[in-house]
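Protein chain data
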Amino acid sequence: MELPEPSFVIYSGRGMHLYWLIKPVPAKALPVWQMVQNKLVEALLPVGADPVVKDCTRVLRLCGTINSKNGVQVTGKKLTGKRWTLHQLSDAVLGKRPEWVPSQKPRSAQVHSFSAKPNGRKKYGSIYQWCLWYTKI
């Protein structure tokens, strides 16, 4: 599988961590981030990726610290230093999103086509709806 080149790599003393830096995103983008993370781990399994380390709360070793399991100092290396938007990285890892085509319906018809939330407010879409195209891959 072809993957985009990571921004940097950390040598943890027992392996390496690859990082693709992304620009800040709202918490609602987590489902898309998680799909990208899952695909990266899946693609790297043949070279020894740890399938457990793919959650957003994972704390990894910092450069300059000592790995207490073997006494090796953690080091890092900048590869590209590129900072991606989540859209760019998801396109590169998961494939291009289909082109968005605006609806031809009048604006008032669009507003009424969405369901209401339990609190009575209209729902105008969410990150879950926007990322549904990824689940069809």
